[in-house]
Amino acid sequence: MRDSMEVRSPSPQGRARKGEYTAQNDCARLAHVPQDSCPERSTLSKAVAAAVTETYRAKGKYDTANERQAGNVDQLAEVLSKARAAERAAERALQEHINQHGCKI
Asked: What one-character DSSP code corresponds to residue 20?
């Protein structure tokens, strides 16, 4: 019995036989990857990712300023605190949405 993913030459007419693997069939299959079933969950997930990124960015700036003993450490601490609060709020909104609508991650 042949492996289903085995590459075989196309039929004499130049077309793939039924069930035959070809690069073109593979590309077509990958092009039809299903989108998120819940657009709101997708939006909330992206907001969480953006908030996490901003928290890392603020933490890096704070750590650098703290190491150099720069004068703006207090301002950066406040920015970091706000970034962490925004991250928690985004995570909470996503979790509430998942709990309310039963969305899968």
From this structure: -
Confidence at residue 14, expressed as pLDDT on a 0 to 100 scale: 54
Phi/psi at 56 (nearest 5 deg)? -60, -40
Element (H, E) at 96: helix 73-101
| CB half-sphere exposure, 60, CA atoms < 13 A | 6
- CB contact at 8 A, 58 and 72: no
Does 78 have pLDDT greater than 50?
Answer: yes
Question: Do residues 105 and 98 make contact, with C-beta atoms less than 8 angstroms apart?
Answer: yes
Q: What is the DSSP string of 51-95?
A: HHHHHHHHHHHHHHHHHHT-TTHHHHHHHHHHHHHHHHHHHHHHH
pTM of the predicted structure, to 2 decimals: 0.61
The answer on pLDDT for 45 being more than 70 is yes
Please, which residues have CB within 8 angstroms of residue 91's CB and are 6 or more apart in sequence? 48, 51
pLDDT at residue 81 greater than cutoff 50:
yes
